[in-house]
Amino acid sequence: MIPRYQTVIFIVLLVASVVMGIALWQLREHAHQRLMAGQDSAPTQAPAIAPSEQATLLVANDLDSSLLTQVQSLPLPEDSGPRARAVLGKLLDLYAAPDANHPVPGGATSIAQVYFLPALGSEGAPGQPDSGPQLAVINLTGAFAASHPSGLEAETLTVLSICGTLHANLPRVTQVRFLVDGQTRPTLAGHADLTRTYLVDEAVPNEAAH
Q1: pLDDT digit string, tens, across residues 162-202
Q2: What is the pTM of this model?
Q3: How confident is the model at residue 205 (pLDDT cuts 50, 70, 90)?
Q4: CA-to-CA distance for 65 and 133, rounded, in angstroms?
Q5: To the nearest 10°, the Cα dihedral for 94, 203, 150, 64?
Q6: Euclidean distance between CA atoms 95 and 86, whole angstroms
Q7: What is the CA angle 149-151-155, rounded to 5?
């Protein structure tokens, strides 16, 4: 036979469980109603769209191993990081197109991040430490590196076109370093050295050809 005190404890726990369940259900309903009311009352705002500007791309061409200047009208943010990603994203979108003369899969999503540091061996103007030449650090995705066609010429054209495009739109950038998934990687796809610092002068085409 079950002792009386155990029966009382069981009944108390059962009642407490029922009460807590009802309270939780009511809290959930109130939270849902507040959420729906907030969605209904929140004003609908159009996403901010950057104004279109002329961007200069240095587009690689495998047919003659050249870098050809191409001007595109793009929505470009004012901040340097998003601006660089927008320009380089367009460049890589061109390479991912079916009719690309330098076919490389991935497109704009291959640029994970771009940030800037003072260029190595340089100093800004007195009183303006942020006015000097810049080193751009470009963080590529591992998927882009894994799918990039292997070969010294193909990899070098990609690297130089990125460097030249960045400098053409952000003239203070004089040096470029590459990371892959936030880490230093020996090569892009087995050939182009990613451990070094690239000088953008190496990527500036002479009369539209490298």
Answers
A1: 999 999 999 999 999 999 999 999 999 999 999 999 999 87
A2: 0.72
A3: low
A4: 29
A5: 70
A6: 15
A7: 70
In this structure, the strands spanning 66-75 and 111-118 are unpaired
Quick check: 185 and 146 in contact, CB under 8 A? no
The Cα 118–Cα 147 span in angstroms is 31
Q: What DSSP string describes the chain?
A: ---HHHHHHHHHHHHHHHHHHHHHHHHHHHHHHHHHHHHHHSPP-PPP-PPEEEEEEEEEETTTTEEEEEEEEEE--SSHHHHHHHHHHHHHHHHHSTT-SS--S-GGGGEEEEEEEEPTT--PBTTBTTSS-EEEEEEE-HHHHHHSPPSHHHHHHHHHHHHHHHHHHSTTEEEEEEEETTB--SBSSSSSB-SSPEEGGGG--BTTB-
Give domain limits for the chain.
1-45, 52-203
CA dihedral 17, 18, 19, 25 (to 10 degrees): 110
* Rg, Å, the chain Cα set: 28
Which structure tokens are listed for 44? 């609908």
Q: Cα separation of 141 and 184, whole Å?
A: 12
Distance between CA 106 and CA 96 in Å, rounded?
6
Q: In whole angstroms, give the CA distance from residue 161 to residue 209.
A: 11
In degrees, rounded to 5, the angle at the alpha carbon of residue 148 between the alpha carbons of residues 142 and 150 is 125
